[in-house]
Amino acid sequence: MKKLTIVVPALNEEAVLPTTIQRLIRIEQKLIKKYPLDPQSNILIVDDGSSDQTWNIIKQAHQTQPVCELKFSRNFGHQNALVAGMKTASQTADLVVTIDADLQDDPEKIAEMLKQFFQGAEIVLGVRNNRDTDQWFKRTSSNCFYKLLNLIGVKLIPNHADFRLMSKRAVLAFLAYQERNLFIRGLIPLLGFKTAKVYYRRTPRLAGQSKYPLAKMLAFAWDGITSFSIAPVKIILFFGGLASFLGIVMFLYSLITKLLGLTIHGWSSLMISIWVLGGLQMLSLGILGEYLGKITLEVKHRPRYLIEAYLK
Ligand code: UDP
Ligand code: MG
Predict the structure, then answer these.
(1) Model confidence over 94-124: pLDDT tens digits?
(2) Nearest 10 degrees: CA dihedral of 130, 136, 142, 143?
């Protein structure tokens, strides 16, 4: 008998949470009948510092249903909520499924994930096969993002976000990655283990607003790039080398023209070089600064989240 815990991160999800809890419990009960699952299988909701009724809704569900919950002392972000949920779940569960609270990821597909698990997969990734619920901008930018990451050598599974099943062993392996700049979907392929995919249709949010406005989404993408690749620094190095070489050529050129008495008062060329090189330098410093900043954050070893309450 394997115990399944479904981990649900939630930030201000009062509009959907009651439905989500009912739906997940119903699905889990069906699964318990169909697969060799522990009847104690449950749901773990992580309240990521919500300011609405989210916590009250969970507390109420806890009294009558197999629902456990963690409450963060403030908002620590979606990725940290997932880590906390997986860590807590792995103390008692044999397998963990993570799914968003808004049910955009089809919870019915958990059955297929379980099937793959019982056939030997330790990680089963939910991969969406449509993007029509996204607006043109999100679709295009996300496409570019996956292509860019691939180009600089980060292996991501396109259209897989944080809907996945993991065995306890895979979760423990994942928890050994201690970095603070979290981009979970980038770490999963690094784990190895037998991995399978389940395709699903992503639907619009059941209710409520997206908790990922554009600025947060871009910050997340930037973390994905700079936490997994030092390609930007290498590009800087390349351009730095090129600029230095051009600098030497320019130096020789000016020297020779001066010696030959062909003094050219090239105002424009001077301006261009100052601006181009100045720009490149500032850009380079900015990118280097980003990596330095990341190092600063990592060496502090701050806790990734703080728990205010835990209802078992
Ligand atoms: N979420 C969270 N903390 C945050 C932001 C989001 O726990 O700081 C949760 C949110 O409640 C939801 C999931 O993460 O369950 C995904 O967020 P959302 O659906 O708003 O993102 P989108 O699907 O719009 O990208
Ligand atoms: Mg969503």
Answers:
(1) 999 999 999 999 999 999 999 999 999 999 9
(2) 70
User: Which atom of ligand 1 is nearest to 77's Cα?
Assistant: 8
Give the nearest ligand 1 atom to 100 CA.
Answer: 15
In whole angstroms, what is the distance from residue 273 CA to residue 271 CA? 6
Structure tokens given for 63: 């009294």
Domain boundaries, the chain: 4-229+306-311, 231-300
Q: If you take atom 2 of ligand 1, which residue's CA is the nearest one?
A: 78
- What is the position in ligand 1's atom list of the atom closest to the CA of 76? 8
Question: Looking at domain 4-229+306-311, what is its CATH homologous superfamily?
Answer: Spore Coat Polysaccharide Biosynthesis Protein SpsA; Chain A (3.90.550.10)
Ligand nearest to the CA of 134: 1
- Three-class DSSP category at 135: coil
- Ligand nearest to the Cα of 162, by number: 1
* Tens digits of residue pLDDT in 174-192: 999 988 888 899 999 999 9
d(CA 220, CA 311): 30
Smallest-distance ligand from the CA of 212 = 1
ipTM: 0.96
* Least confident stretch, 38-47, 194-203, 264-273: 264-273
**What amino acid occupies position 60?**
Q
Report which protein residue has its CA nearest ligand 1's atom 11: 10
Asked if residue 209 has pLDDT above 80, the reply is yes
For a mutational test of ligand 1's pocket, the pick from 16, 211, 214, i.e. the residue with the most ligand atoms closer than 8 A to its C-beta, is 211
Q: State residue 266's pLDDT score.
A: 72
- Partners of residue 311 on adjacent β-strands: 69
